[in-house]
Write a structure and sequence with these properties.
single chain; about 200 residues; Aconitase, domain 4; 8 helices; globular
Length: about 200
């Protein structure tokens, strides 16, 4: 998994509330299990007309947001089904950080496993960051310092659990953390085979 330490870039404003994973990644595209190459399907129903042409009024189809690395979203982002395709599509587009007042738990967990930082902040600070995004301004997200720096220079602190911070900074997930304990697991299995061979 790609490490996340510090991210600076344009933030795309997406002020809709209760955006579910079917909006992020429509169910009709769930036939693939590929983790890469899904960025073009992100927000498909909002980004494209039925004939496949782009909707000019959708934020990610407009400069400078085509290169957005940060998404400033409305309340309760990522609700709905637990499909991991949603963070795969976000990552495929280039989004590495999402700011909202709240996230669906399973969605946030899936994002962490795929190297995307979800930051929950209060309504007033989200409004400031949304205004910056709407103005096309860049933000700097420093996970090590747990700070967001606005283009004005104002610094906003945010909370993220130590375990999440460590995983993202080190680029590890549960599988890699388990593999790091391979020697201890092998030792345990050998002892069990000798002391409890019936298992």
């Amino acid at each position: 998994m790609e490490c996340f330490t510090r991210l600076e870039g344009v933030a795309a404003p997406f002020p809709k509330n209760h955006v579910d994973t079917d909006v992020i990644y429509p169910g009709r595209f769930l036939s693939t299990i590929r983790r890469t190459g899904l960025g073009h399907l992100l927000f498909h129903g909002l980004r494209y007309h039925p004939d496949g042409t782009e909707r000019a009024d959708f934020v990610l189809n407009q400069p400078p947001y085509r290169q957005a690395r940060i998404l400033v979203a409305g309340d309760n982002f990522g609700c709905g089904s637990s499909r991991e395709h949603a963070p795969w599509a976000l990552m495929g587009f280039g989004i590495r950080c999402i700011l909202s007042t709240s996230f669906a738990d399973i969605f946030a967990g899936n994002c962490i496993k795929n190297g995307i930082l979800c930051i929950a902040i209060d309504t007033d600070r989200l409004a400031l960051l949304m205004a910056d995004a709407e103005a096309g301004l860049e933000l700097c997200v420093d996970l090590g310092a747990r700070q967001i720096t606005r283009s004005s220079g104002e610094v906003l602190d945010f909370d993220v659990p130590d375990e999440v911070r460590k995983k993202l900074i080190n680029g590890t997930d549960e599988v890699l953390e388990t593999l790091e304990q391979a020697a201890a697991i092998d030792d345990f299995e050998s002892r069990i085979a000798q002391t409890q061979p019936w298992i």
